[in-house]
Amino acid sequence: MSGAALGLEIVFVFFLALFLLHQYGDFKKQHRLVVVATLLAWYLCFLIVFILPLDVSTTIYNRCKLAVNSSPAESNGSYVTLAPSKQKCFKPWSYIPNGIMPIFWRVVYWTSQFLTWILLPFMQSYARSGGFSITGKIKTALIENAIYYGTYLLIFGAFLIYVAVNPNFNLQWNQLQTIGIAAANTWGLFLLVLLLGYGLVEIPRSHWNGAKRGYLLMKTYFKAAKLMTEKADAEENLEDIMEEVRKVSESIKYNHPLRKCVDTILKKCPIEYQERMGRNMDDYEDFDERQNSYPSEKSLVKLHKQVIYSVQRHRRTQVQWQILLEQAFYLEDVAKNETSATRQFIHTFHSQEPENKIIQYFYTPTVEWYWECLLRPWFYRVLAVVLATFSVIVVWSECTFFSTKPVLSLFAVFIQLAEKTYNYIYIEMACFLTIFFLSICVYSTVFRIRVFNYYYLASHHQTDAYSLLFSGMLFCRLTPPLCLNFLGLTHMDATISHKNTQPTAYTSIMGSMRVLSFIADGFYIYYPMLVVILCIATYFSLGTRCLNLLGFQQFMGDSEMTSDLIDEGKELIRREKRKRQRQEEGENRRREWKERYGNRDDSTRNRVVHTDQKESSFSETSANRPLSKYTRSNGRSERDRIELLQDAEPLDFNADSINDDPLESDSGR
Fold this sequence. Notes:
mainly alpha, 24 helices, globular, disordered C terminus, LMBR1-like_membr_prot, LMBD2 protein, coiled coil, GPCR-associated_LMBR1
């Protein structure tokens, strides 16, 4: 099993990152380099989280082996107190051989840092550029990032000059490398605590509110009102941009040097606008540079950038609106079915997507009713209590992890108890649950935050390239300080535990923070205590209230604006529901008509042929009969027969082809 666990987790994490990226990105429409760079950033960050527990268990085994092999005279006090009998020091099932983890962490860490500080910012500008060639996009990206890169080079150059001039500093390359790592981790820790303080409170609260059907329905109405406003704004913006594109397309003719740029812009427009512009465009006229003023290439680049942004935003709002409608209809169905006496879940609308037969077989309407109306609220409440307990433990440990005698951090207590018995499975599970919960609190906040329309992670393949790359940058900057914070909570970092023990391979790559004592003994220890203040602010929704005061509508139960938006959203959902019902009723009527009268044309043709044959035979027989045999009753029966034929063939009647009334012809005859 040596190294097998590492290989399995590497493969599993890759498919996990690929699945999540597929939910948010669009592999077909987005550039391959954007997809690959974002996938690599997400993959490396998730890999660090999943592999770090294996590093901890391997380090504990190495400490045990070192303590057993050391004699009491040579070993220090920590080795003697921690050294068990030789029978207890056995190799864990996930043991990774020496020399692999340092190389692995070095490759993963420096690759992620290269992505977050150099490649991803450059690709952000490249993806957002409106250039028509690769050279033009690269030039634009370099110009936009010149200030970004120049600032870091200026700070680093000033620091090198200060170190070179000051005789008290005698720093080597390893120490300079450690200072660079410390600077990056300090920036990441500053942002980490902010996101962690929000996630520790919001995640348990969101699951607790998830058990309240009325709360979810009111919040969905609120979202519907806000999304409708954004949707209307996106449609209006797209119309304005398309009008500019139409004017440019009509002014620049087929033989103009910039016509290729216009064609590139037209390809990015929606299909209905392309067809509309194609019908109104006359490309057979030659352009005259003296008579008309044509837009420059720079203005076309700006227009191209606006088209990409407006089309992406319009498509995203359309998809989100449909998803929100389905969610609102489903919550209304749950509210109606809670009082159902049959205990079978009845949907107002059938699902538009075909359901899996296996799921449909087991997830029957009765099972769905018990889950949605009875079990699911209690499941969310229990899960919220468990998550809240984890949050309390994290907050307590963040405030007390610097205390080593006595050990107050609960995570450190759990790991040290398992270390005495060398229960490696328990150690790995405890480490994994701890760092996984921390990662969920931080990463979920990254997925939830929205910076106007510049950064927004939207599911169902609606996230633009800029937001995907920005999320990869955030993950790469947050994950290393997150792992260092986890090692500090569990006292696996020698800087925190103050023990002369073998460090983890991850800590050895980070280097000793003693080079910067004010960061190691000050910022890293006392700054995480700020999470208490952030948790309190999040619990009382101080950030939401501030945004609401600034004019950004937020969901608040005691706000008059929120009540108005809820009423507006309820009316929008009711209107869309009636529209959907009318569409389904129309489709049902057409389906019933087709099923009932689907073979009418064939039967009508057969009746026409049969009627012609009967009429011909009748005329032959009547011609052979004497006129005295015609009576009033015979004339009436023939009129009835003709009227029945006319009623049976309303679609085949053609007044132009018939000159005389058949009744009049019979009476005249």
